[in-house]
What we know:
This is Synaptic plasticity regulator PANTS. By secondary structure, the protein is mainly α. Among the domains are: 27-102, no CATH class; 168-203, no CATH class. The chain has helices at residues 31-42, 44-54, 61-76, 79-96, 98-102, 122-127, 132-142, 176-179, 185-189, 192-195. Helix 1 runs antiparallel to helix 3 (61-76) and helix 3 packs antiparallel against helix 4 (79-96). The longest helix is centred in the middle third of the chain and has 18 residues, at 79-96.
Amino acid sequence: MSTTEKEDPNTEKLDESLETELIDEWMIRQCSLYKDEYNECTSIKGRFHQYFIYGETLDCNQWKKDYNNCCKWVEERDLRAAETLIESEKARRYLRLQNHYRNDIWKKRDSPPSDWDKPLPDWITKRDENTYLALKAKELKEGSDKIDNKSTCSVITVFSVHFKRVTMATRSASTGYLIEDPKYSFLKDLGLEKHNVGVFNGQWKATGD
């Protein structure tokens, strides 16, 4: 008894036995990148940046849609999702290069200049004649470049540093400078004369300033 599977007519899936190559499949990024872009767009830092640059917050839903379409393409081989994702990437790329395409000041070349490989000026050649790259290029051109198999010895000096903890003796009687003063009686209530003796080391007195 044959069973028929109901499929969504709006969804086109590729048969695993068929190899269908999308012309612009290279434009599809890793799915994790779309998720990162969405998280960055909706973060507090991203919102402040958008408000600073554009004067308002931007709509980040397109990144979420692209992430969902990317997952459908990677996991389910959904052809329609891949085509939608590619169209989104093309629109994003056109928006990024929009000012470049609108520039009518500079004339774009159809081919490189005919003398693009002409020799460098003499002053540049003279300046770089003793550089490492110039010497290596000369050796390769003359065929005199040989691998030096000589063994080398490296001396490593190790410094050992030892730290010694020095314990300084403190006098518990020095706490009297503060503890005995009525203005600083709260220090006694806090127990500082027992736990922080080193603070009251007799180097200064309570003057009430």
